[in-house]
Each structure stands twice: as C-alpha cells, then as structure tokens.
Amino acid sequence: MAAPGIRPIRLGLIGTGLAVEKLHWPALRGLADRYVVTAFTDPADEQRKRFTGYSGTDPALATADRAALLARDDVDAVLISVPIPSLYEVACDALAAGKDVFCEKPAGVDAQQAAAFLALAAGFPDRTFVVGENYFYRDDLRYARALLDDGAIGRPHLMAWRYAGQSVPRPGGFTSTPWRHRPQYRGGVHLDFGVHHIAQIRLLCGDVARVHGAVQAANSTIDAPSDLTLNLVFTGGAIGNYTASFPEIPIPPEPNDLRLYGTEGVLVLAGSESERRVTRSSADATTHTTVFRGSDNGYRAELVDFADAVQFGVRPVGSVAQSVANAMVVQRALDSAEQAAALALDPVPGAGPVPLWRPRGSAGLFDGLPGQRISSTASFAA
Ligand SMILES: NC(=O)c1ccc[n+]([C@@H]2O[C@H](COP(=O)([O-])OP(=O)(O)OC[C@H]3O[C@@H](n4cnc5c(N)ncnc54)[C@H](O)[C@@H]3O)[C@@H](O)[C@H]2O)c1
Fold it and tell me: What are the coiled-coil residue ranges (predicted)?
C-alpha cells in the first residue's frame, strides 16, 4: 500500500470543521507515507486553532483564505470539507488553480448542480477529481458485495432497509452545525446523510431504474423532510424498499438492518461503526457471520484510493460520476414525492455499476488493511 520512493502528496485543507476532526484527520494521521499537510484554511479562527491543537500542525501553515492556499506551489492537492452549499464553488476554484481535488459529498445541492459537477469533471480530464463516498470503501460492504458477485445468495430479488434514528442538535456533533438546520440544499438530511445509504444500496444492488418516493416533515429542528420512503426497481430486476426517518423524539432501539433476499439465501447487514456484521444464510438454514471491528467506515481507504489516483493514475472508485449517481437517486425520489408518480432514472454518464475497490495491486479485499474480521457459523433450523 505504501509508495516507496514516491514523495507524499502535499495536501491543502480547505475547511477544518467537524468532518476533518472526526473523520479525515484520524485517517490522514495514519497515512504519513501518502500525505503531508502543507497548508490549511478556514474562515473561523476558532476552527483553525482547534485544528492545530489536536493535529499538532504548525499554525504557520494557516493561510488567510482559499485563494492564498490555492496560489501556493507547495500544495499538490486539496481536501475540500466546507458546508454543502459551498462545495461546488470551492471545487471550481481548486481545479482552475491546477490542483487535484478530493471534495466532500454530496455532488450538488440539487439536480442542476449535480450536472454542473459532471461538466466540471469533464472540463478537467487531466486532474484527479473525486467527490468522496466513504461507504464504497467500507470493509463490510465490500465483503458483502464480493459475496453477491460470487452468487452466494443466488439471484437477489428483494432489498428491505428501514433506518431510523433520532436527530436533534447535539453539541459537538454533526447535527449541531447551523447550516444543517436550515439546509440550503434540496433534501436536507437525506442528501447529506442519506446519500451514503443510497451509495450502499447501489454498491450492493446495482443501479436504480425507477423510484417512487414519499416524504414527511416531522422534525421541527430541521427545515426539511425528516422521513423519506422509497420503492425501488433496480436495473438488474430486483425490487426494494428504503425508508429513512430522523425524528425529533427518542425512539426505541432499532435494528436498522439491510436485508437482501436471494433465490438461494439471504444477506443481512447489521451493526454500527464499532462492530459491523454480515450474515449470509443458506436454504438449509445455516448461517455464516463475519464480524468487522476496528475499521473506520472507509475514510482511510478512500484517501488511499485518491492517493493511488494522483500518484499512479489509478481510476478512483469514488468518481464524480458515481457520487452524482448517488445524489440523483435522492433528487429523483424528491421529484417523485412532489409529483406523486413513479419516475425513471436516467443513467449518469460515466457511472454505471459501482466498481469493487481492492487495495492496489491486490487480489484480496483486505490485504494490508487494518481491522479485525472474525467469522462463525450457526443454524436457525428448528
Ligand atoms: N463523508 C462523511 O461521512 C461526512 C460526514 C460529515 C460531513 N461530511 C461533509 O463534510 C463537509 C463539512 O461538514 P462538517 O460537518 O465538517 O461541517 P462544519 O461546519 O463542522 O465544517 C465546515 C468548515 O468549513 C469552514 N468553511 C466554511 N466556508 C468555507 C470556505 N469557503 N473556505 C474554507 N472553509 C470554509 C467553516 O468555518 C467550518 O469550519 C460537508 O460537505 C459534509 O457533507 C462528510
């Protein structure tokens, strides 16, 4: 995985808020052979100070604004982690300044800006330009996808996933950021967080051919729909339902499992970041479970893929087109809810089935990666 003899990418950080603190910096800290932070910027003094405090980065690497950062010759690539409404404009400036770009999700505040992201990528074919989607790189999801590719449950015919979790502003949490309370992007929490779920669904079930959606607003802390339910028809012929609810009141513990029913077995994806489980059952009632611990929701691997793209010309899995395809399922679902009609989805140019990421040069799924994977078998026969 390391790149002997190759200089680490000199990275500039644009925006040093919660995602950098909780997600990117922990990943970057473990990738010193691939990245060195040479500059950072954030309009908020407090955020800059906080970043230098926990990261140990030299405060002298702070720049006044993004123009100053983008003008530096010692910045090869930038990580853009600013509020959703500003992502596109910052990505435009960074590409125009000749930088390789890792931009946070989602690809566009609405369908029009999603198309603008695609056009932007097409306008800079020589640059590496990624809109991050860490779920494509999650160990449990890649393992589940490999099982499906191997025909472990036969032909998948039905996907069922209900995800419900209370969402209220919590100090220090993502829900605390004011820009998320009155979102200037269509779909609110469903475009911000739900887009990862759509990525998971696309990784496992393939592209969506048709969607019928409905929404409800039942959370006074978010000025957007809290509930979204989708009936889905996949291009491969399977059908499915995805229901997401982010209510204001506490709710009883929910399983939040995704279940995928096949002609020869069932795949169940369960758990949360600290411990994820993939259980495959067969028609003879045996189950095979793999537990994943110590992996990080894919943040490290997506930065490795970006570095491989910049340094070795590898085609990144989390391309702009793939992120646009995720965002467009949400946008089309909202169109469907507004029009009270089932709607077809147009294929996104350059997207197609999500490729399965493996460490570069490796045939295995986990070679050289951190984390524990423990398997066991059981039976649910009476
Ligand atoms: N992949 C994931 O799991 C995940 C999780 C959370 C957030 N995100 C994404 O990360 C991004 C940031 O989210 P967050 O939760 O860290 O928000 P945040 O508000 O905590 O941080 C954003 C930071 O950007 C700064 N900023 C605003 N405008 C800027 C500009 N023009 N130039 C430079 N800095 C600017 C703000 O001062 C703030 O410090 C969003 O795009 C979000 O979608 C991704």
Answer: none
* Pocket flag, ligand 1, residue 123 (CB < 6 Å): no
Dist. CA 266–CA 326, nearest whole Å: 24
Say if ligand 1 is within 6 A of residue 44 CB: yes
CB of 41 closer than 6 A to ligand 1?
yes
Nearest 5°: CA angle at 202, between 196 and 205? 135
* Interval between CA 355 and ligand 1 midpoint (Å): 27
CB of 92 shorter than 6 A to ligand 1? no
Q: Does 68 sit in the ligand 1 pocket, CB within 6 Å?
A: no
Q: Domain residues of the chain, as ranges? A: 9-135+300-318, 139-296+373-379
Which pLDDT value is given to residue 3? 57
CATH 3.40.50.720 is held by the domain 9-135+300-318:
yes
Q: Which two tokens stand for residue 280?
A: 């495959």
Closest C-alpha residue for ligand 1 atom 18:
17
Q: Render pLDDT for 75-102 as a digit per residue (tens, 0 to 9).
A: 999 999 999 999 999 999 999 999 999 9
174 C-beta closer than 6 A to ligand 1? yes
| pLDDT digits 0-9 by tens, 256-283 | 999 999 999 999 999 998 999 999 999 9
**pTM here?**
0.97
Residues in the chain: 382
Two structure tokens written together for 45: 């003094």
- d(Cα 116, Cα 124) in Å, to the nearest integer? 13
* Cβ within 8 Å of residue 2, ≥6 positions away: 33, 34
129-158: b or e for each residue (b if 16 or more CB lie within 10 Å)? Answer: bbbbbbbbbbbbbbbbbebbeeebbeebbe
CA distance 95 to 112: 20
**CATH code, 139-296+373-379:** 3.30.360.10
Is residue 356 within 8 A of residue 345, CB to CB? The reply is no
